[in-house]
Design brief:
The complex is a heterodimer of chains A (223) and B (232). By secondary structure, chain A is an alpha/beta fold. In chain A, 15% of the residues lie in helices and 28% in strands. Chain A has helices spanning 6-15, 86-94, 131-137, 198-205; strands spanning 22-25, 44-47, 51-55, 76-83, 100-103, 107-109, 114-115, 140-144, 156-157, 172-174, 178-183, 186-192, 209-217. A ten-stranded mixed beta sheet of chain A has the order 4-3-2-1-5-8-10-11-12-13, with helices on both faces. In chain A, strands 7-6-9 form a three-stranded mixed beta sheet, with no helix packed on it. In chain A, strand 12 (186-192), helix 4 and strand 13 (209-217) form a beta-alpha-beta unit. In chain A, helix 2 packs parallel to helix 3 (131-137). Chain A is globular, with a radius of gyration of 18 Å. Residues 218-223 of chain A have low confidence and may be disordered. With 232 residues, chain B is of the alpha/beta class. Chain B has a single domain (5-119, 149-218), classed as Glutaconate Coenzyme A-transferase. Classes of the chains: A alpha/beta (223), B alpha/beta (232). The interface between A and B is large, with 41 and 55 residues.
Chain lengths: 223, 232
């Protein structure tokens, strides 16, 4: 079966982020979205450790340990960017000022519950960071993840079995197989990867899916 | 004449007692007041409760304090990192207590302490394991969790410049928890790269007004590792 590559997934998410948006990209896969935002589009990237207007990684040799992102990697600040303290940074989320966040996930439920911070394993050290604040804070929460686990189980589930990050907080799911909206009427498939029929996606996913009026196959090959 | 500057990091931390709650600024190593932490280790206070976003990196700063077994409990949002092996070992051995707090709740609980708030309802963590056992309320159809302030006896923070009244400015994302921790502690101790004369800090851009700061220590040896471009 054809699957979107990570770059294609990131490019697909980037397409949905309009000019002027205030956006937080989570650690890991979501970070790649930044590489696909068109240069001509002015978008404000927020990093929860205290900056708006985050730029790309610095050239080798000009890293500054006082200028890092939430993943503690060196970054740059765009002209016009700003620094602020942690309480202000999280007020930007919790206060509903952030337009989008993009997060990775272990599981998303049919009602939009998110599990992405803890496997619940007995010997695992729990660490949550800003995941719970982002999940409930941004106006729209996008999740980016593989559609299935390595063992072939759907990561879109009726009810999350991993500990929750947030309740009914996810708006849209981007996987390597499809783009799916979480709506009050259930999960609605917006797009599927080239050659993957809706019925096959529904079989793989294992929770009820609806076809969107807007549904199209192979959207990436047409762009 | 009011002069909050202190001659040495050792003198700055000399009255931190066993059992104290100490906030330590920084996000990872950005903004971590390593020299003050080193002085605290040398000072020898133990049975401490530490408030920080993380739980130490490598074996420097906060990790060194943990390694010296001076910490009874840590309140943080993200202890597990690629280089948090000191904490990881203590945790698995049951030698340190962990209170895990979502990062925004951690920041707001600290802010609330500094602002005199008794408690607050936050939507973060509602319906998750981190809200278990906590009071909740539905307000206008949305679920909230009651969270209480985190106060401290001391805050150790790092700023770029300070003056003898305790006014501070920071550098880039090293600001992180500094301003709110300064306000939440009975005694806030700031290590700065440079102490400047009164009036040299533009009053329009002072980030932490001196009312929140009790002690200022200049780290006279430039810390090449932590701010290589500070002089640029």
């Amino acid at each position: 079966m054809k699957r979107y590559t990570r770059d294609q997934m990131a490019a697909r998410v980037a397409r949905d982020i309009p000019e002027g948006a205030y956006v937080n990209l989570g650690i890991g896969l979501p970070t790649m979205v930044a590489n696909h935002l068109p240069r001509e589009r002015e978008i404000f990237l927020h990093s929860e450790n205290g900056l708006l207007g985050m730029g790309p990684a610095p050239a080798a040799g000009s890293e500054d340990p006082d200028l890092i992102n939430a993943g503690k990697q060196p970054v740059t600040l765009l002209t016009g960017g700003a620094y602020f303290h942690h309480a202000d940074s999280f007020a930007m989320m919790r206060g509903g000022h952030l337009d989008f966040c993009v997060l990775g996930a272990f599981q998303v439920s049919a009602s939009g519950d998110l599990a992405n911070w803890h496997t619940g394993a007995a010997n695992a050290i729990p660490a949550v960071g800003g995941a719970m604040d982002l999940a409930i804070g941004a106006k729209r929460v996008f999740v980016m993840m593989d559609h299935q686990t390595k063992g072939g189980e759907s990561k879109i589930v009726a009810h999350c079995t991993y500990p929750l990050t947030g309740v009914k907080c996810v708006n849209r799911i981007y996987t390597d197989l499809a783009v799916i909206d979480v709506t009050p009427e259930g999960l609605v498939v917006v797009e599927t990867v080239d050659g993957l029929a809706f019925d096959e996606l529904a079989r793989i996913t294992g929770v009820p899916l609806r076809r969107s009026d807007m549904h199209r196959d192979s959207v990436l090959s047409s762009t | 004449m009011i002069d909050k500057t202190v001659a040495s990091t050792r003198a700055a931390v000399a009255d931190i007692a066993d059992g104290a709650t100490v906030m330590i600024g920084g996000f990872g190593t950005a903004g971590m007041p390593s020299e003050l932490i080193d002085a605290l280790i040398e000072h020898g206070a133990r049975d401490l409760t530490i408030v920080n976003n993380n739980a130490g990196n490598g074996e420097i700063g906060l990790a060194a304090l943990l390694k010296a077994k001076r910490v009874r409990k840590i309140i943080c949002s993200f202890p597990r990192q690629t280089d948090s092996y000191v904490f990881d070992a203590l945790y698995h051995a049951g030698e340190i207590e962990l209170e895990l707090v979502p990062q925004g709740n951690l920041a707001e609980r600290i802010r609330a302490a500094g602002a005199g708030i008794g408690a607050f309802f936050t939507p973060t963590a509602y319906g998750t394991p981190l809200a278990e056992g906590k009071e909740t309320r539905v307000i206008n159809g949305r679920g909230y969790v009651l969270e209480y302030p985190i106060k401290a006896d001391f805050a150790l923070i790092k700023a770029e410049k300070g003056d003898r009244w305790g006014n501070l400015v920071y550098r880039k994302t090293a600001r992180n928890f500094g301003p709110i921790m300064a306000s939440a502690a009975k005694c806030a101790i700031a290590q700065v790269r440079k102490v400047v004369a009164l009036g040299e800090l533009d009053p329009e851009v002072i980030v932490t007004p001196g009312i929140f700061v009790q002690r200022v220590v200049e780290i006279d040896v430039p810390d090449e590792l932590s701010t290589p471009q500070a002089a640029a």
